[in-house]
């Protein structure tokens, strides 16, 4: 089964000068038809104005991933520029880092995944996207290929496509898959998707090609337990 989540159908909330676009129910936004996608519980795009501060909050038993799409974000004094992915494994309970956007603001994708084990010690790390041909692993259960070792049978992979480039998309029907368009435009089986759009698949095998439009594309593929 395939589901389509257009960018303009996401929920929109504001927190002071911050704007949040929510693929699933989150905080002040509630949509009973979009409560999550398997173990993927939240996927929010945050727009932070210059020098905005995001306070710390206490979280337990959730894998939190923060991908900086544009601008710069400081987390507890560590500067994360575009392409940095920070992981917080909340475990039995921890506080998220205080965040401050840079002088030009920041656009950030926030992902929350339920772990497959609870009450583990808190953990965290950072990786940075390296532009290569094909899919680049960012997070995996065993931390393969220097990726983040998240505590779930889940994989995050990134791809950057040059204008007109093609990339194979092969998906196993025993798992769930969420394809998020980060920037640019791409076609999947003739369906055109633009930044902010997403497709999800479950109980369906896929063997297709992704074809980037004239401006190229940046993609994030999240694979989850079925």
Q: Report strand %.
A: over 45%
CATH superfamily grouping? Jelly Rolls
Number of strand segments: 20
Q: Under CATH, the topology is which?
A: Jelly Rolls
In terms of per-residue confidence, which ranges show pLDDT below 50 for 5 or more consecutive residues?
none
Largest sheet, described in full? Answer: 9 strands, mixed
| CATH architecture heading | Sandwich
Q: Your description of this structure?
A:
The chain has no helices and 20 strands. It is an all-beta fold. The protein has one domain (2-225): Jelly Rolls, CATH 2.60.120.10. A hairpin with a 2-residue loop joins strand 2 (11-15) and strand 3. The radius of gyration is 17 Å and the shape is globular. The N and C termini lie close together (12 Å).
Index terms:
226 residues, Jelly Rolls, nine-stranded mixed sheet, nine-stranded antiparallel sheet
Q: What topology does this entry show?
A:
Elements lengths: L1 E4 L5 E5 L2 E5 L17 E9 L4 E2 L3 E2 L3 E13 L2 E4 L2 E6 L4 E2 L3 E15 L9 E6 L7 E5 L7 E2 L5 E7 L4 E6 L3 E14 L2 E4 L3 E4 L4 E20 L1
Parallel strand pairs: 13-14
Antiparallel strand pairs: 1-19, 2-3, 3-4, 4-11, 5-11, 6-10, 7-8, 7-9, 7-11, 9-12, 13-15, 15-20, 16-20, 17-18, 17-19, 17-20
């Amino acid at each position: 089964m395939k589901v389509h989540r257009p960018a303009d159908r996401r929920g929109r909330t504001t927190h002071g000068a911050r704007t949040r676009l929510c693929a699933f129910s989150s905080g002040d936004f509630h949509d009973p038809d979009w409560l999550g996608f398997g173990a993927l519980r939240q996927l929010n795009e945050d727009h932070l104005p210059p020098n905005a501060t995001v306070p710390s909050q206490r979280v337990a038993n959730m894998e939190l991933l923060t991908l900086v799409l544009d601008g710069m974000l400081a987390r507890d004094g560590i500067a994360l520029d575009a392409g940095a992915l920070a992981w917080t494994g909340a475990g039995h309970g921890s506080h998220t880092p205080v965040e401050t956007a840079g002088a030009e603001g920041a656009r950030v994708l926030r992902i929350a995944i339920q772990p497959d084990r609870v009450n583990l010690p808190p953990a965290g790390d950072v990786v940075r996207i390296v532009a290569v041909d094909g899919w680049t692993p960012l997070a995996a259960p065993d931390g393969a290929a220097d990726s983040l070792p998240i505590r779930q049978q889940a994989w995050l992979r990134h791809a950057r496509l040059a204008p007109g480039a093609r990339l194979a998309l092969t998906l196993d029907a025993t798992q769930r898959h969420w394809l998020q368009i980060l920037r640019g435009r791409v076609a999947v089986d003739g369906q055109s998707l633009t930044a902010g759009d997403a497709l999800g698949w479950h109980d369906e095998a896929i063997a297709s090609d992704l074809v980037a439009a004239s401006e190229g594309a940046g993609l994030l593929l999240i694979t989850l337990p079925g």
